[in-house]
Amino acid sequence: MKKVTLLTGTAAIIAALSVPAFAQTEIATGASATGVSAVDDRITDIEDDVIDDFDRSNDPDRFGPSDRRQGLFGSMSLQYSGSTGNSDAQDLAIAGRVSYNQAPFAQSVGLAIEFGENDDGVKDTEKVSAIYDAQYYFNDRFYAFALGRFTVDGLVDGLDNADETVRDFDEDDDLRRDGFLGFGPGYRVINTQDTAWRVQAGVGVRYTQTGYQDLVDDGSETEVGYIVSSRLYHRFNEMMFVTNDTDFLSSDANDVITNELGLNFRMSEQLATRVSYQTEYQSDRAIRTDNKLGVAIVYGF
């Protein structure tokens, strides 16, 4: 199915706000010393966050794999900073993503490695994370999915920071290792140019290990979970569309439900707006429900 371009004015707005991927560190002579560059970087960060909101709301996967890029492709990035003088700090971040799409099968693997030392030269970050995402389409409506995530935090060691003694298990809820693997079927209930609705459900396994378990007995916890998801997209006209994303995850530990309702509309060729309302429910919290209202506005001229 041909992908329909929505909020056509937004594309021009995004182009107007975009900056080169390898922009110079100083926007004008003297900008770094006077703090202008730092504020300019923050402006860029805010613009990127807003654009990300619009990109996610447009749900590029709503029509399936027909418009996906085929073959093997990906990206890799590295960032390092080190300082001496009043502070001795270092930060290293490596991130990459590799995707492979071939006809009905699409999959991607992502990796993030982060190491850091604070101003006193003490290690404060040592984390490695990996993700996996795959879909296999049997036809235009029926597909299978797989989701995977694994994170290792090397700084979680089960010791008390004050005197390096072993903390009690009940006092140590920090996770040294945290992994999840889930899979199941999905179905596109509605798949038209104006309305797209897909649902999927599956079973998953979560593996966790606290710092205490790693230090004392090399123990861990493995539990089975179930996930149900829904993605709804509806376009009212050329100016407005609405999305509603729902996820439900159930396991022995707790139940988690998230729902995000978003209204997106183009007020003019230069102005686009997104209003969202997100609700998160967790059964094991004292206050079980959190709500968040979000407003994103993009204006280009």
TrEMBL record:
Pfam families: DUF481
Protein's UniProt keywords contain Signal: yes
Keyword field: Signal
Residues of the signal peptide: 1-23
Domain of life of the native organism: Bacteria
InterPro entries assigned to the protein according to its UniProt record, in alphabetical order: DUF481
Stated name of the protein: DUF481 domain-containing protein
Organism for this UniProt entry: Paracoccus stylophorae
